[in-house]
Amino acid sequence: MRLTFSLDHHLGAIRLLLATFVVAAVLAACGAPGGGGGGPGSAGITGSTGTVKVALLLPITASGSTPAIAKALKQAAELALFDFDNPNVTLVPKDTRGTPDGARAAAESAIHDGAELIIGPLFAQEVSGATPVTRQAGIPMIAFSSDEKVAGNGVYLLSFLAGRDVPRIVSFAMSRGKRNFAQLIPQSPYGRIAEAAFAKAVSAGGGQAAVRATFPPDDSNAMLGPVRQIANAITRGQPADALFLPAGRDELPSLAPLLASADLTSGRVQFIGTGQWDYPNIGGEKALIGGWYPAPDPKGWSNFTQRYAKTYGAVPPRLASLAYDAVSLAVSLSQNPQGERYASAQLTRASGFAGVDGLFRLLPDGTCERGLAILEVREGGPQVIDPAPSSFATASSY
After folding, report:
1. What are the residue ranges of helices labelled H in 240-319?
2. Which of 55, 174, 377, 391 to pair with 221, CA 20 to 30 A apart?
3. Is the pLDDT of residue 46 over 50?
């Protein structure tokens, strides 16, 4: 599952339990019903009578297609509560209306109702609206935004953050003998973040990246020039045994044929991507066959979607796993004493949390660190060629 920089891309289904707990219990929950019933009912959230209240802030009545996403997140939250069958936790949904003012009012209502932890909101502007309220009350918030500017001081982002997966792919490429890199970077905010992370990772590993070109991601006609610039540099003898290409489903279908026409394939120079590559049918882009990219093991998302579809009769959006994971985390910590269960020391413990999409841990600065696998693009579907770490103690560069 990939975070893509945009909301409807990446994100895996991470069933969370503390890494110090038995991860197998989480994995089992993905594939089998919990709680002894057939699935959460329509009152799955409000029907619980637990003493630990956890608020769920979602844009339930926002405009456009957002309410459908909110509904899926709410259903995933219900599923997590059902799977882990913890009667001590009550989820309290609050409507943010998709606005800063709505999020502020929702946070105030949640705190008035006794919430000890707030899960959500979804968008950065909602997080900004709710933050003054939660900070004043000393209530932590685990939000779904991918904008790092809203993180910190009691606000944690569970999302897959841009650039955070780059050290993983660079470290793996170097372990396979790749030391000289070319880079073809989209002229976008995501591209700038990915390039900065790439430069830092290459420098830290003692590599070089002398060949560079950029391209406009929204103009396929203007992509050929930068592609030829890279190809010509390599033909002239510029050292490059890997090409860093932090593009995704919006750019790669147009870019891949141009790469092939310039004789740039992973057979000539190893392609390496980011989590942006983790989208369905990427193997249909023939030029990308053999390319490497970092992502969670896809088995976890597959198990989660099957469980969700069996319960709700629909395939969940990628974001649904965030709500599931956040609620699972909340349940995991609910056994601790009041006042301690969601303290910073618990949320940011070094061992982190584990789930079907691998390890993750919340950091003191409010961002999220993840342990990822390395996948290779193949025609029949991506294949894991380097597994995700089993603990952060064994993670080399994440």
Report:
1. 252-261, 298-312
2. 377
3. no
